Amino acid sequence: MSQLSIDDIRVLCDAHPKPLELHFQYGTAGFRTLGNTLDSVLFRVGILAGLRSKRLDGKTIGVMVTASHNPEADNGVKLVDPRGEMLEAAWESHATVLANAPTTDDFLHALDLFVRNVKIDLSKPARVVYARDTRPSGAALISSLEDGLKAIGAEARDAGVTTTPVLHYLVKAINTRGTKESYGDDSEDGYFKKLSDSFKKLVAGRPKITPLVVDCANGVGAPIAAKLIKYLGESIPLVLENTSITTPGALNNACGADFVKTMQKLPPSLVEVLKPGQRACSLDGDADRLMYYYLDDRGYFSMLDGDKIAALVAAFIVDLVKLAGLESAINVGVVQTAYANGASTRYLAKRLPVKCVPTGVKHLHHAAEHYNIGVYFEANGHGTVLFSPQAQETLANHEPSTPAQSTALNHLINLTHLINQTVGDALSDMLLVEVVLAHKSYTGVEWNSLYADLPNRLVKVVVSDRNAFRTEDAERRLISPSGLQAKIDELVRRYDGGRSFVRPSGTEDVVRVYAEAILKTQADELAFRVAGLVYDEAGGDPSRRPKEFL
Asked: Can you tell me which residues bind Mg(2+) (predicted)?
């Protein structure tokens, strides 16, 4: 490591000691835990980001400090690769090893091994752009990150306080600047212009859009949405709620996309705001998830989750491809996980190919890349649409033969600019939904009537070792413990429209049980019966068996 300043790294590493009793794990969401324990992790991530950039010939790497929909006390950090995508999976284990080196000497030794094994040319430049959300612990963690960037000699750019999707956008825009694949101007201003210009073109000539209430989860989506409003002008009236980013404890508290999805009810703060017949949406803490909902004319709440968004958007895109005369040149597909409601899968499968993959954005994103246009949304509201380079080239070169084809083609081209293809983006997805609603003249009621969700229930079972539970078939079937899947199959057969699967959590010693059936009471009963099987299989004490586990 002759080209690294070991003395500088040693001094700065000593200033950010690792808590000896803690183990850190880099997963799909990066590192995520209590914010006040992450000082050493952020320092080491700064060094890792610099080395990732060197390994990729000086391309700019992104670092986002956020814990998304988690409680305010939590924080986290994740790396963003040059195309705006998640960190290459093989590097997750490297991140975990470096973060857990107990002492400075151990860290320097691990660093030396890492540089040798991955064959990093230390003479290459290191470039990193970083940002954070509004969490109180964010500023101190950014300072730790900056020490790491300084130690590795990285050329660093502070993107300030912004959303996760804006940071992903910036990374791709920086790395494609001046090329024919240019993603846009590498600034917040460029992001806002790209979204607002394409949105205005897509809704031009449509009836005036009625006001949309936006729950900003008291997070970073609030200031970014407020800036976006200025660019959107009169094209859509947005009413921002839950914008208290400096009120202690307010972030994601009884509001935001995760609250709505989990509790399946209106955030209490909107009870006096939302009127019967009006629609609304909730962002999460870093604005990469989106949940829609509305009150019907009688004031009853109805939720429109990621499955409903996928159905709305995919059907719209399929129609546009047909109208543009490109049905034989562009294939459109949808990617879901086992958590997708069975009714949504059946609705979509009648219209286009549907693929099921294991839970996790990296699996969805990768599978969506296999289509010319790939739509993916998790039920939790995280998702986007990917247009392959081939699809974008087809759109650019296609010569329409009728005015109708020309109109549809222009709509598709504008969608490639409206949609943030790097990652799920609540604000971009919100504008996408509003485009489809405007084109279809749908209210929330009409959108919701595309299909009726099957009643479902999600139950969590605490186990001593989640690794004893292994799955196959995109996590829809268990292969161990031996014999348990057969017992689940036998139970499922007793319920109309029954479906259930069991999968271990990726972050804690719990097993999640999902069940659905024609009736709500049956879905609940099936979930609890399967949970009982899991509890018994895991060696649970019969005397302490939760009473609801039938």
From this structure: 68, 284, 286, 288
